[in-house]
Amino acid sequence: MLIKTARDIKNSEITPENIFRDRRRILAAGLAAGLLPGIGLDTEAALPDGISLNKTKPWPNSIDEEYSDFDDVTGYNNYYEFGTGKTDPARYAHTLVTDPWSIKVEGEAENTGTFTLEDILRPHSFEQRVYRLRCVEAWSAVVPWVGFPLADLLKRFSPTSKAKYVQFFTLYEPNQMPGLRYPVLEWPYREGLTIAEAMNPLSLMAIGLYGQALPNQNGAPLRLVVPWKYGFKSIKSIVRIRFQESQPQTSWNMAISQEYGFYSNVNPRVDHPRWSQASERRIGGSLFSARTPTLMFNGYEAEVAHLYRDLDLAKNY
Ligand code: MTE
Fold it and tell me: What global pTM score does this model have?
């Protein structure tokens, strides 16, 4: 977010047109059927054996907007562990090793320890939720995410009454993540939520998009999607979850606290010190394409405004 880079190449421009169109057709057919069959793309590898997206159900409250182009969502990314350019993650994240994968759970919970990805995923059924991801840089994307409520996972660890916050960490593997050589942020990338935010039914633990497993550049094998907060709260490739009593550190707040607060709720009324947050542009269009007004809490005011009733959102940005 420190560095603004113009996109240089659109992936759909280098995908043969017939394959590109056919993929869109298959995806549309799967959605119309109400289920998302494994659509034959070779990304199931990122999920452990026995975990399949075949029975993914559509979530009834998805936003009713046209999806962003698959190639834009997987080709224009922020994943600084692979570089700060928007096309760097798609170019370099193939070095990320997602199998085996485990997650360490620690802090204020009764059931802590290290869990394999399979342990984490097996009890859950998956749903497709179409959310907008709104980046603090004022671009947004409409993505059919596949995942399950974060609350369902966190409850399995039985957080204690002292667990007021939960913190998440991304993998730190310099051999796999070339961007870690640069001190752009304090690594590992970390994020946090209040326990009430984490338990809100909108907070999604995502393992896929467009009916298939997450590509590495989007945070394989599992990442958060917190739809009422700026995109940087949606931490990728999670390896550690910590319950704690005090407000946790977050990477962007540690880097530039006057620009990035702990809450980072989408708020068109509070501008970023260097740019307006009042409107946004969908990825994929040109820099001159129409901007749409940004909605308070990214359109989820009814579901989440109560979490901030006693907070001054201009101060707690
Ligand atoms: N997670 C990690 N580990 N590293 C990052 O650099 N970038 C964040 C977030 N999660 C980031 C991250 C930002 S700024 C955004 S906007 C979203 O990922 C982008 O998600 P996407 O690439 O799937 O669109």
Answer: 0.88
